User: What shape does this take?
Amino acid sequence: MEIREIIHLLENWAPKQIAWEKDNIGLQVGRVNNEIRSILISLDVTDEVIEEAIKKKSNLVISHHPLLFHPVRNLNFEQKRNKVIEKIIHNNITLYSAHTNLDYTRDGVSFTLAKKIGIKEINFLENIPETQYKLVTFVPSKFINQLVEALSRAGAGQIGDYSKCSFQTEGTGTFLGSETSDPFIGKKGKLERVDEIRLEMIFEKWNLSKVLKSLREVHPYEEPAYDIYPLKNENVNYGMGAIGTLQEKKKTADFVKTVKKMLKSPTVKWTRGKQNFVFKVAVCGGSGSDLIRSAIDQNCDAFITADINYHSFLDFADEIALVDVGHYYSEVVILNTIYKKILNFLKSQKKSLLVFKYYQKKDKIRVL
Ligand SMILES: [Zn+2]
Assistant: This one.
């Protein structure tokens, strides 16, 4: 199997287009058309990770944090980061990163974190707005099901956990074909009135060309009529952080202890919040302090993230229980989700490959 097939799988799940605009995701180093020997999944790209990849004969490394984030001004292989790049190139490894696009997708970093600590009915804490279009087209009723199927395969009609979502109304279409036309229904030069269905479906805007291609392929008319509307909607398919509820109310102190245990975090900083129990909880893998206000506004009792600074703890101490579990521990749970995605894909393709996960051998940040 070629590396590009795994990249395709990852990008279908976490499209590059939803990443933070300043992020540098995707292919970092190497080629996509090499045959995969084995895969190593890691949170970071360090010398230890690349050494592990060499040991395991992995020529595809998938990391969450991109190696190349700031502009590379030189490739002086005496410098630490560049030495890692040198080792990647010398060993013919391909490095691919899925960062904020993996944070912002369903079953991505925050959803995985939420599941790991027992949160139910998970949704995004904030949805990403203005990333969708609506397609409206008009088709004879005989072709409607076929068209809905094809457009769904091209990515249209997905709303959260629901697929093939459409709205259909009956009406009459009219057209008059010119001398050079070749109408599918009726005759050229004669005004036709046809029973048609007005079909409406929404889709992610980066799927526009796929959706239009599929419309043209399946629609029976020589010139199918359609409209594309930009939407102001919040896109429920992608967003930041995650929100949900616990199975039952828990004392805040007990909840924090459980979270610490489940994430194997060596140190957790927390504030009590406005009451002594938690039920509605929000999370964000990595540095999620920007979402604290959103969690409070949605009546969450607790917010779990990392890198919360002193002033945020103080400012929000009376409004919500803030729980800082450490950056690594809030995100490392994603490795297993990526691992399972790849294994399921390999199974569906009746292929087998070795896939490894890299966990830091010893935490570089020591805790007393
Ligand atoms: Zn991170």
In short: The two ends are 46 Å apart (CA to CA). The mean pLDDT is 95. Residues 131-231 form a domain with the Alpha-Beta Plaits fold (CATH 3.30.70.120).
